[in-house]
Automatic annotation (TrEMBL):
This is 4-coumarate--CoA ligase. The lineage of its organism: Eukaryota, Viridiplantae, Streptophyta, Embryophyta, Tracheophyta. Residues 48-409 form the AMP-dependent synthetase/ligase domain. It comes from Thlaspi arvense. Belongs to the ATP-dependent AMP-binding enzyme family. Gene3D superfamilies: 3.30.300.30, N-terminal domain of ligase-like. Pfam families: AMP-binding (PF00501), AMP-binding_C (PF13193). Residues 460-535 form the AMP-binding enzyme C-terminal domain. The chain crosses the membrane at residues 246-268. PANTHER family: 4-COUMARATE--COA LIGASE-LIKE 8 (PTHR24096:SF358), LONG-CHAIN-FATTY-ACID--COA LIGASE (PTHR24096). Its cofactor is Mg(2+). Keywords: ATP-binding, Ligase, Magnesium, Membrane, Nucleotide-binding, Transmembrane, Transmembrane helix. One of its GO terms (cellular component) is peroxisome. InterPro entries: AMP-bd_C, AMP-bd_C_sf, AMP-binding_CS, AMP-dep_synth/lig_dom, ANL_N_sf. One of its GO terms (molecular function) is CoA-ligase activity.
Length: 549
């Protein structure tokens, strides 16, 4: 908050956090403990918090039991950074791509790269070679870290392999398992890194075309980590990493925040419900993060799960990706009496900032995603008129704070659309904030489809459909599904005389996209409904699709 606003803090409603003079909501959390050092990289900031460490094990592989201590972890980070700098020539501003399933080594690579002032970008192992090549063309990585199995998807990019293995002609410039054993030279000169420098370039799904690289600075990431010092955290927590580490939540929370807090993370290479439960039992995990469909699966299979697995260590379940209904929340608490369930809300563009429920009392405000995060300011803006509104009024949620990204990489148009000149991020979500400062998500202005917590951009699938020779026009909408949340459904207008079938449409798309982006349902229509300006009337199609449910 600005000094002038601090002096008027008595005018801020202590209950809602709303300041009428500028129509802004302020966080009711403790202030962020930010560093005044502007030449501080996020790796150095995290390593400087070693005094907070509460245990010895930093990361543990659930499948193999292999673990790495905090001291060995930081030794590995320094050794890998030394090799990348001296042997590979990575410098400040260079982009390094990580393409890997969840691994104990992803945190090592991330922190090593960012310590050099270089930039981390990630891609899903499920992405096709075509999808990855488009990201490579946009971000222009100098190097990629991957596994032998995924190396063929990285044509033309020099790679560092996690371990030795066949790569079908890829240009291998290093083996990570060897780098972590190499003694550092001791004479590497570090480039000066400023907090405004880009540290991470994660790609966010878009509704109007291909995904966009989000420019996150060292300062943004430091603010995210610092937020965890201001918010309550149970001592001696053992986190089970069930989310992809290529995703913002996995990287920011399971790599950075847990390291700074000195907490242990047990890593699942890929999600499987039974493997997750077995890992909770084996490693006495205390905390999980899950998407709503997995919470529903745990409720439906509760009798079997509790009979087969000892979950007595589990205390906390955190949920994001979509709001949980009161029925689902109460259903979970009835089945798992000793586990508290907390919701949260954030975006790739906000670097973990948004809202969260951090106590049992807060979690009982059903339908809410919690209170504004520490250091966050919010506005509720009428999307039609631009008027800034107040308590209990619904509009688009705008966020501002030190975690908010700087915009999109090499995409000025998208940056201007999502970020205003004063630094406000337009989230694209319709929300309201109630009398007690709780944030409620009402609907999405954005048209992203949420499939098992993954974001599926309709425009990307529509572009692929329009490339089919038998398709005149197409639109993709979310179709509600109890198991996965939403699944992509296509409305297709065929060319005259075409006998294109539903299966042919589904197969055509499935060969070109990651599994979670596949179209699951197809309906044929004479023409796609559109506005006078040519925009697809998705709501009309959603009403048609759901009218018989």
């Amino acid at each position: 908050m600005m000094n002038s606003q601090r002096s008027s803090s008595s005018l801020i409603d202590p209950r809602s956090g709303f300041y009428n003079a500028n129509s802004t909501f302020y966080s009711k959390r403790k202030p962020l403990p930010l560093s005044a050092n502007t030449s501080l990289d996020v790796t150095t900031f995290i390593s400087s918090q070693a005094h907070r460490h509460r245990g010895t094990t930093a990361f543990l592989d659930a499948a193999t039991g292999h673990r790495i201590s905090f001291s060995d972890f930081w030794r590995a980070v320094n050794r890998v950074a030394d090799c990348l700098h001296l042997d590979v020539g990575i410098r400040r501003g260079d982009v390094v791509l990580i393409l890997s399933p969840n691994s104990i080594y992803i945190p090592v690579v991330c922190l090593a790269v960012m310590s050099l002032g270089a930039v981390v970008t990630t891609s899903s192992p499920l992405n096709t070679a075509g999808e990855i090549s488009r990201q490579i063309a946009d971000s222009n990585p100098k190097l990629a870290f991957t596994t032998p199995e995924l190396a063929p998807k990285l044509a033309g990019v020099p790679i560092v392999l996690e371990r030795v293995g066949p790569t079908r002609g890829a240009r291998v410039v290093g083996i990570l398992s060897e780098m972590v054993k190499k003694e550092p030279s001791g004479w590497r000169v570090r480039d000066r890194v400023n907090q405004d420098d880009t540290a991470m370039l994660l790609y966010s799904s878009g509704t109007t075309g291909r995904s966009k690289g989000v420019n996150s600075s060292h300062g943004n990431l430091i603010a995210h980590v610092a937020r965890h010092f201001a918010e309550p955290m149970e001592p001696n927590e053992i986190f089970l990493c069930t989310v992809p580490m290529f995703h913002t939540y996995g990287l920011l929370n399971y790599v950075m925040a847990t390291l700074a807090l000195g907490l242990t993370v047990v890593i699942l290479r890929r999600f499987d419900l039974h493997e997750m439960m077995a890992a909770v039992e084996k490693y006495r995990a205390t905390s999980l993060v899950l998407a709503p469909p997995v919470v529903v699966a745990m409720i439906n299979g509760a009798d079997m799960v509790k009979t087969k697995y000892d979950l007595s260590s589990l205390r906390t379940l955190r949920c994001g990706g979509a709001p949980l209904s009161k029925e689902v929340t109460e259903g979970f608490l009835e089945k798992y009496l000793t586990v508290d369930i907390f919701q949260g809300y954030a975006l790739t563009e906000s670097n973990g900032a948004g809202a969260s429920a951090d106590t049992v009392e807060e979690s009982r405000r059903y339908g809410a995603v919690g209170l504004l995060s520490s250091g966050v300011e919010a506005r509720i803006v009428d999307p039609s008129t631009g008027r800034v509104m107040g308590v209990n009024q619904t509009g688009e949620l705008w966020l501002k704070g030190p975690s908010i990204a700087n915009g999109y990489y090499r995409n000025e148009e998208a940056t201007k659309e999502a970020f205003d000149p004063q630094g406000w991020l337009k989230t694209g979500d319709l929300c309201y904030i109630d009398d007690d400062g709780f944030v409620f998500i009402v609907d999405r202005l954005k048209e992203l489809i949420k499939y098992k917590g993954y974001q599926v951009p309709p425009a990307e699938l529509e572009a692929l459909l329009l490339s089919h020779p038998d398709i005149l026009d197409a639109a993709v909408i979310p179709f509600p599904d109890k198991e996965v949340g939403q699944c992509p459904m296509a409305y297709v207008a065929r060319k005259p005389e075409s006998n294109l079938s539903e299966k042919q449409v589904i197969d055509f798309i499935s060969k070109q996209v990651a599994p979670y982006k596949k179209i699951r349902k197809v309906a044929f229509i004479n023409s796609i409904p559109k506005t006078a300006s040519g925009k697809t009337l998705r709501k009309d199609l959603i009403n048609i699709a759901t009218s018989t449910l």
